[in-house]
Amino acid sequence: MKLTCLAAPGSGGSYHTPASHLLEMEGLRLLLDCPVDLSALAAFAPLPLGADFGDAGDLICAVPYYWSLAAAVAAKEGGVDAVLVSSATGMLGLPFLTRLPSFANTKVYVTEVAARIGKLMMVELVQLHSEFVRYYGPDMDGTPKWMEGEKLSKLLSLLQKTGIKDEGNDLSPLMPLYSAVNIEECMQKTQPIKYGQEVCFNGMLMLKASSSGLELGNCAWSLKGPRASITYLPSTAFVSAHALDCDYNSLKENDVILFSDFSSLNVMDEDNENLGENAMLCDDSVSRDDGVGEDENVQILCKKDDIADEIERISFICSSIIDAIKSGGSVLVPIGRLGVILLILELISETVHSFDRKVPIFMISGATEKMIAFTNAVPEWLCKPRQERLFSGEALFGHVELLKEDKLSMFPHLYSKALLMEGALHYKRNLLVLEQGVDAELALKPFMPAAIQVLECSFLSGIKAGKINPLLAVLKPKIVLFPEEMKSRCPIKEDAPWSFLYYSKGKTIEVPNTREEFEVRLAANVALGLQPRQLDGSIAVARLRPKLHLSNGQYMLVAPKDRYDDQSKWQLLHWGPVGADRVLLALQEKGIACAFGTDDDGSAGCERSILVTSPGDALVKMTSERTVICCDDENVSKQIYDAIGSVCNGI
User: What pTM, to 2 d.p., does this model score?
Assistant: First the structure.
């Protein structure tokens, strides 16, 4: 088994740009996620700028290209057998691949909810791209001028400002956007599945998606093969305020666990802020069997401190929004996290009821209406408290009441006529809420000069370091695959029952199989077709050409569909020593003129040779280990081979 990390989490964080890996397992090549890093868009001017409309500065005034390192590397590697998608953002780069001939037969597995959200996001991305085309004209064939000559270094510098990690002068990850047709072709290759649904792939692997808890439809993957089982664990939240909690029980006792997307840990937890520079984020007390039982580890995982901190952060954002509104300003919240937006709307709805004036709330997105309607139609994908609301007759989310009271309006784009008539967008005491990691100065550059208050915030986007060892104690893997950059934060413990292998971007590591032998069953039709030969008094052997197949959780040897040929026509496989005297006699019985070589004295243990003179010249050399036929005539060689085969054991 081999693992190659194609791309580390992007500058947008593991939520927006998850990592991507290539896993080679049982002769199959599996791509784990294929995102697009949209932070590169900040390098392009959103509209032609001039003296009257702001200064473009170093921004590229052209139709943008899109950065997908995972898609670029996967395309260079050639086709893959399947793609496993863990989130809606993890599939944004798929149309780059599925439009290529080498990916014509590739299957894509993704949860039903992530597939629907992902398609809405891809369609909206194409619609937003059309705005660039409207300003700058259609894409031209060939390499754009801003990717050539002296402008290349300027481009690379600008991309680094947006947060794109240094890839040298390789611009292959920067590519023109796909089309709506490409999206439809991609979705045709997609096989949506439910949580807990087992899928047999290629008769070799059993695939199963389990809730990862971070967002609606996000999942962790379990892959079970004949010689190893592996858990692919991307961004995870054990307790969620909106999505179904992480189902870690379904991941127990897999042999290997692949941790991914730890960019959220770059900022230490509040509890660790006062520790020394070299302090470890992992808790020693839960990494050993020193009295900490599984129940206690489960309590650590299910503790609601993470979600409480998340709600506190969102409450602070809401209070800042309310303050800006009370002072007569407007608030812009360009945050692409569906769960966060739903929670912000829910908390705001509780506050605006007390206002003595109407506070209009606008959601501006081409996917808004479908997304909002969709969230009210998937209760089985929501956390238990949300599901209980359904049974008690309450709305699943707070925005439902806002819509009923006409306090929430949805528009497909900023220049919607109804939105302009509202006159909601003005430039007085404005507040811009940005997610941490976005270069606010670069993002606002096309709109300068402008006076605007910026509030940067961060959200939970992955497993916290303090819960890694409790999780390992519950899952009980044999091997842990861990990012090299996180090694110092979760060091190896000498008495840990699992071993660590560290990976880094662009490097392939060998992962040992945990089982060299495994049990298989023989299909009845294959067993009845066997023609065994007695090897000795207690052992009989038979020859077959089966295919390994997975059926109902059991590995079976079945007859390939394209091989029903007669076994009597197979070339025999021989074994055992051959006596030179018996071979000489067999050749002569076939009418072949032959004799022992002049230098053959018949000594035991020495090479024996037989010289053939008719029907053609040939030489047969024999030892206790092998027999070699030396002849230029193919027909004569076959006659000699058949004669030798008549005195050999074979199947």
Answer: 0.79
